[in-house]
Specification:
By secondary structure, the protein is of the alpha/beta class. The strands form 4 sheets. It has a 6-stranded mixed β-sheet, with helices on both faces. A hairpin with a 6-residue loop joins β10 and β11. α15 packs antiparallel against α16.
């Protein structure tokens, strides 16, 4: 037993001695740990010269170098031998990249002075900055995200002017031009914001028009916002209306925020200008086409407008409600069902087709569907079959219910005999044991024979298919679906088209029990959007569900 213990100690000693010298260990890096242990086994110590271990490494040469190094590392770690640290050679970033990172990090952390310090240092070292660095610096110098607040708040503006950050704009612009970098749209927008802070609305408008006139630059509505904000703060209704006309001339579509600023400018002015009330009402009608529900800020500005000195006669403004049939007691009139125009339908459907093609794995698949619709239509009622089949199936034995699809098809044929139905389903739903049931197969066969069924192919989203088909059905078309249509796909669609279309054409449904309890819920008889009623009253829908009504006194 004693000899056994001595053998163990001696083998352990040889094991440590053998691997302690790193240079020797490198020579035998190809020897596996198991082969080394076999030579230094307990109680049986075989002493060999280093040359024999070299031959062992040579015989193990077929093993990969990476594997040998890993096993060597494991063996060294087992005996407590310090490991050599393998470090990658750190890449040294070029000075231009270093300054770019510094400026971007400063902008992210809102440490504006750090960004300007990096700019000054780069300029002193003659380091050429990238174009996006100049854009970031101009954005920061022109007030950053707080530029609009600086326009409206005198105290904060005066405090900001003391920092002399606005003066940096000219210095940054000079370096941008001298570096040969092009002036992009955001550079003009930043300079327009600077001018808005300084109260130079006309100069801000001129900069926005330069972007429009330069065909190499992308036009953005945000270029005109600084001018609008500046004119609004100054109560310059003429300047705001001029900006509005320039926006229209540039082929841009103003949104709610632009209409809000113009309305605010009209309310703030003294009404001694040449803007007639007919011009104001024309602006409101344009807003009714471009928007649906309005924010509380816009509702507030509309209330101020109708109670200001701008209208030629006094108006009464009140928060009111609308009955289910569209009648408003405050206005003593009924709201109308307002749909998209033929031109808007064409633009809306083209936009859906373009987005669907970009999202699909095989873009040509959607083009095939569009041609199929033209060949086998027109269709009047589009059925979102997956939504129908899964209705009320959130229980243990629930699943994809083809019986509910059949019930909806039968009801559509009965209630809308002059409108051809189209069932749209993803192809995956046409396979599996549920789709292979006798009833499901009979339903799909019947629909296919009548050209009333389309399976969205693999790699596609069936939502795009039923959405396009429902829009392509035109003003008489209906979509049977309870889908709220709030996910990211529908956010890509133009709100001014999508919101109005959804109100007018989505037909919801319920099943109170089995398939015989199906009930349809038709779209409301009016549209929630700004309306000018037949008796002259105005109705503005708020996003909290209320309405703002305005009527002439008396």
């Amino acid at each position: 037993m004693c000899s056994g213990l001595r053998g163990i100690r001696y083998s352990s000693y040889c094991y440590r001695l053998f691997f302690r010298n790193y240079s020797v260990a490198r020579c035998v890096s190809g020897i596996t740990a198991s082969r080394v242990r076999s030579r230094l086994c307990f109680g049986v110590v075989t002493q060999r010269p280093l040359s024999s271990y070299a031959s062992m490494a040579q015989s193990d040469g077929k093993r990969s170098l990476a594997s040998g190094q890993m096993q060597e590392s494991e063996s060294n770690a087992a005996v407590g031998v310090p490991q050599p640290r393998l470090t990658k050679k750190r890449k040294v970033m070029p000075p231009s990249v270093q300054y770019r990172v510094r400026i971007q990090q400063a902008a992210k952390k809102h440490t504006i002075d750090d960004a300007f310090a990096a700019f000054e240092q780069a300029k002193a070292e003659n380091v050429r900055l990238s174009p996006d660095c100049f854009v970031t610096l101009l954005f920061l110098a022109a007030g950053g995200d707080s530029w609009e607040e600086l326009v409206h708040c005198r105290e904060k503006r005066e405090e900001y002017l003391k920092t002399e950050r606005l003066q940096k704009c000219d210095e940054i612009l000079e370096c941008l031009v001298s570096s040969g970098s092009p002036m992009v749209e955001m550079c003009y927008t930043a300079l327009a914001r600077r001018d808005a802070i300084l109260g130079r609305g006309s100069s801000a408008l001129s900069l926005a028009n330069q972007v429009t006139e330069d065909t190499t630059l992308s036009q953005r509505l945000r270029c005109y916002l600084p001018a609008l904000v500046s004119f609004t703060a100054a109560g310059d209704a003429m300047g705001a209306m001029e900006t509005y006309r320039n926006i229209m001339a540039a082929g841009l579509e103003p949104g709610e925020i632009e209409f809000q600023k113009i309305i605010q400018a009209l309310s703030n002015s003294d009404s001694t200008d040449d803007i007639t009330w007919e011009t104001v009402e024309s602006l409101l009608l344009h807003m009714s086409r471009e928007t649906t529900q309005l924010t509380k800020e816009t509702i507030s500005e509309l209330s101020r407008l109708f109670t200001s000195q701008r209208p030629p006669q006094p108006w009464t403004v009140e928060t009111c409600s609308v009955h289910d049939d569209g009648f408003c007691e405050f206005c003593n009139d009924k709201l109308q069902a307002i749909d998209l125009t033929e031109e808007e339908y064409e633009q809306f459907s083209s936009g859906i087709a373009s987005l669907a093609g970009k999202q699909a794995k095989q873009p040509e698949d959607f083009g095939t569907f569009v041609e199929w619709l033209k060949s086998h239509g027109p269709f009047g009622v589009i059925i979102d079959a997956a939504n129908v089949a899964f209705y009320g199936q959130n229980f243990d034995t629930g699943g994809f219910n083809f019986g509910q699809i059949e019930a909806v098809v039968d009801r559509v044929r009965r209630d809308f005999p002059d409108l051809k139905p189209l069932v749209i389903l993803h192809i995956n739903r046409t396979k599996g044991h549920l789709a292979n049931s006798q009833k499901a197969k009979a339903l799909l066969t019947d629909l296919t024979e009548k050209n009333s069924f389309y399976a969205a192919p693999h790699g596609s989203n069936d939502d795009w298919y039923w959405m396009y088909a429902a829009v392509a059905a035109g003003q008489r078309g209906l979509l049977v679906s309870n889908d709220e249509m709030r996910d990211h796909l529908f956010n890509l669609l133009s709100p001014k088209y999508f919101d109005k279309w959804k109100q007018r054409h989505q037909m919801r449904y319920t099943f109170a029990g089995d398939v015989t309890t199906l009930e349809f819920q038709s779209p409301p008889p009016y549209t929630r959007c700004t309306q000018h009623l037949s008796n002259g009253c105005w109705m503005f829908p708020a996003d909290d569900g209320t309405w703002l009504g305005a009527k002439i006194d008396g």
